[in-house]
Design a protein that fits this description.
By secondary structure, the chain is of the alpha/beta class. 29% of the residues lie in helices and 21% in strands. The chain contains seven helices and ten strands. The strands form two sheets. It has a five-stranded parallel beta sheet, with helices on both faces. The chain has a five-stranded mixed beta sheet with strand order 6-7-10-8-9, covered by helices on one side. Helix 3 packs across helix 4.
């Protein structure tokens, strides 16, 4: 099994290795959240046209028991395909190592004795930084990647802070970051991308795939 990062959204940001691995795997696994459009599948659409597609249910829930159940089920689906002698590329947004549900499945498949491999992808926050035209860290600055469920915005952390998937909490985040030179990107690198160089200019509540960047002192200079 391969866990393949397909990047932040722009199909041109798929790596050469991702394309190669997708090309040699007869079966493509996609995370299914219940939404009509599968974003990972859309990004890699050009390369999976002739492939067998398997959707693995990955509902967005904080219920640990339910998450364990669906991850176990997905691992079972993939193991059954591997037992047939066919390899599987499980596609995931961004990079598999950054807040990706595919890692829960990969670990379960690995624990069953199957060979696994991770194929890194361009992260959403690197895509957002490129869209903003900024450096995330310079010299000895630290970079902090903070999930939206984190309590607070990491004000005590020195360096640059990236607040991932901040859509639903944007109202509270905006207020707490007023005057901090914070920026935001919604749907980074996609056709639906929206960039705010100043978060105070954001007048609407953006979608789930919105990240906020609070620059470190070097970028403010």
């Amino acid at each position: 099994m391969y866990a393949v990062g397909v990047g932040p959204g722009d199909p041109q940001l798929l790596t050469l290795k991702a394309v190669q691995v997708i090309g040699k795997c007869p079966v493509i696994a996609l995370p299914a959240s219940g939404k009509e459009i599968n974003i990972a599948g859309k990004i890699a659409a050009e390369y999976i046209k002739e492939k067998e597609i398997v959707e693995c249910g990955m509902p967005m829930t904080t219920d640990k028991e339910e998450r364990n159940r669906v991850h176990d089920l997905a691992a079972g689906q993939i193991a059954a395909i591997l037992d047939q002698g066919r390899d599987v590329a499980f596609l995931t947004l961004g990079d598999p190592s950054i807040y990706s549900t595919v890692m829960y499945v990969l670990q379960r498949v690995r624990d069953r004795g199957y060979e696994t491999e991770m194929v890194p992808g361009i992260t959403s926050f690197c895509g957002a930084a490129a869209s903003l035209g900024i450096s995330l860290c310079q010299d000895d600055e630290m970079l902090h990647i903070i999930p939206a469920c984190y309590e607070g915005t990491g004000d005590s952390m020195a360096g640059t802070r990236v607040l991932m998937k901040s859509g639903k909490k944007i109202v509270d985040i905006k207020e707490s970051l007023r005057g901090r030179h914070a920026m935001a990107v919604e749907n980074a690198t996609t056709e639906e991308e929206h960039v705010w160089k100043d978060i105070d200019d954001m007048n609407e509540i953006p979608g789930y795939f919105t990240m906020v960047v609070v620059p470190g002192e070097k970028e403010k200079e």
